[in-house]
Amino acid sequence: MQTAQRARHDTLKCLKRDWRLYLFLLIPLVYIIVFHYVPMLGIQIAFKKYTVAGGIWGSKWVGLKHFEKFFKSYQFQRVLVNTLRLSIYSLLFGFPFPIIFALLTNTLGSARFKKVSQTIVNLPHFISVVVLVSMVNQVFGSRTGLYGIVGQALTGSYPPDLFANAENFQHLYIWSGVWQNFGWSAIIYIAALTGVSPDLHEAAQIDGASRVQRIIHIDFPCILPTIVIMLIMRMGHVMSVGFEKVFLMQNSLNLARSEIISTYVYKEGLTGKSDFSYSTAINLFNSVVNLILITSVNYISRKLGETSLW
In angstroms, what CA-CA distances link 149 with 14, 98, 143, 287? Predict the structure, then answer.
C-alpha cells in the first residue's frame, strides 16, 4: 500500500514539475485519437451493406459476404501476388542498401567528404512522388526521354517502350524507390554506428585486422539490433505498397503487374461502383495480414535473438 502511494506521489510530482512537456504530448495524442482511433469505428461497414441513407450505424449487417466476394474474385490472386512481389522485391534490395551505405560511409576518413556524400544522397528523399514519376518518364521515355534519345542516336530508331511492358514495371518502381530513399533510410544506421567505441577499432588494428574485417566483426554486430528492429517494422508494411507512386506509373499496358491491393481498393471504393463496404473489407484484410506478419516476425526475433519491439 505504501509503495503504491509513493509511486502515485512520484507521478504527481513529475506531472507538476514537467507539465509543459506533457502538454506538448497532447498535440500528437489528440491527432492519433482523432485521425487513427476514431475512424476505426468505420471498419464495421466491411461487415455491412453500406448505404448513404442508412449510414454506418443504420446499414444492414451481411457478415463475411464482402470477404467471400473478394476471395472468390478473379482479381484476388492477381492483386495479392503483385503486392507481395513488389513488397518482397523492395525488401530484398531496398532494405540492405541503406545498411551497406552506412557501413561504407562510416569507414571514410574525411569528415567533409562524409557530410557532402550524405547530403547528396539524402536530397532525393525530399522529391515528391509526382516529380519522381515525371523524372522516371523523362529518363526512360522511349520517345522524348534520355533512353529514347540515346537509343535513336545509336541505332537510328526508337527503342522499345519500357512502360508498355508489364515486366518492366516492377524494376522501374523498385529501383527508382531505392535511389530516392536509401540515403534517408541510412541515417538511423549511421547514428547507430556513432555509438561504436573507437577502442574496438584500435584494438582490431593492432591485431592486424583489415578495414573489411573491422566492418564485419565490429560495426555490423554493433548495429545488428537496430537492423532487426527496422526489419520487424518493415515487415509490418509488407502488404502496404505505396498507392500514389504505383497509381501514377500505372497504365492499361502494365496493369497485369501494377494492379495491387491499394489501387484496387481505390478503384472499387472511390470510382466506378463506389462499393465502400467491399473496399473496406479488402483493406481490413490487408491490415490483418500486416498485423499477423509483424507479430510473427517480432515473436521469432525475440525467441532467436532477444531483440524485439515488445
Answer: 66, 32, 7, 44
